[in-house]
Amino acid sequence: MVNVEKKIFRSTKYLIYYPKKFDSKKKYPLFFHLHGSGGRGENFEEFKGSTILALLDKEDTPLSEAICVFPQCHNDTWFTDFNELMDFFDYIRQLDFVDQSRITGSGISMGGYGIYQLMMNKAEYFNKAFVCCGGGMYWNAWRMKNIKFKIFHGEQDTAVYPEESKRMVARLKEAGAEVEFNLFPECDHNCWDKAYTNIDNLKWIVE
Fold first, then answer.
1. What does the pLDDT look like over 28-65, one tens digit per residue?
2. What is the DSSP letter of 61?
3. Which of 44, 142, 159, 188 could, after both became Cys, cross-link 175 (CB 3.0–4.6 A)?
4. How far is residue 44's CA from residue 7's CA, in Å, rounded to a whole number?
5. Main-chain phi, psi angles of 110, to 5 degrees
6. Are 71 and 79 in contact (CB under 8 A)?
């Protein structure tokens, strides 16, 4: 992907990557990603070193087939401006070239908490979720029962304990959701490098 734009929605700055040979008259899957606490700030310098952005810059991964959107959190957490985040998601998902049947929510760490909460509020618009070392209000997991999940966590994680993912996985399965849980024995907090560099995972996102 070489076609990337820096934009702003109200007070939220974001990056939007378009597929190669983008045609606004066609429909594309949407990959909507929330970063972790390390990406917070007022400019896009904080995104440098992002595993996912590095993949997009290669132009030859399955994500090159999708519209990929990366809002930036400019406050302490995604929850500080959560209403704006929900409005922003609604704006993005309604773009004419977004395939409404193929919307994936993604998040790592703080973004994992944020994407769970967003999907609990907007569950009818997501069909897949890809979450690394996140957590949230697992007692509301039933709201997301129709979403297909891939969830990842490092067993050695002391920043966000793996129990956070385990609780969410248990409640999702209890509600009847389709869930694949990957607990990496050797990983600490950064399990996303392993998750997002797996080509089969990326193919699954855009299927």
1. 999 999 999 988 988 777 666 577 877 777 767 899 89
2. S
3. 142
4. 11
5. -55, -40
6. no
The domain that holds 116 is classified in CATH as 3.40.50.1820
Residue with tokens 């969410």: 168
In angstroms, rounded to a whole number, what is the distance separating the alpha carbons of residues 131 and 180? 11
CB 180 within 8 A of CB 204: no
pLDDT tens by residue, 160-170: 999 999 999 99
| Nearest alpha carbon to residue 110 among 79, 146, 134, 140 | 134
pTM: 0.95
Domain coverage including residue 31: 4-206
> Contact at 8 Å (CB) between 116 and 140?
no
Total number of domains constituting the chain: 1
- How many alpha carbons fall within 13 Å on the CB side of residue 161? 3
Pairing mode of beta strands 12-17, 4-9: antiparallel
CB 55 within 8 A of CB 197: yes
Contacts of 48 (CB under 8 A, 6+ apart): none
First to last CA, the chain: 18
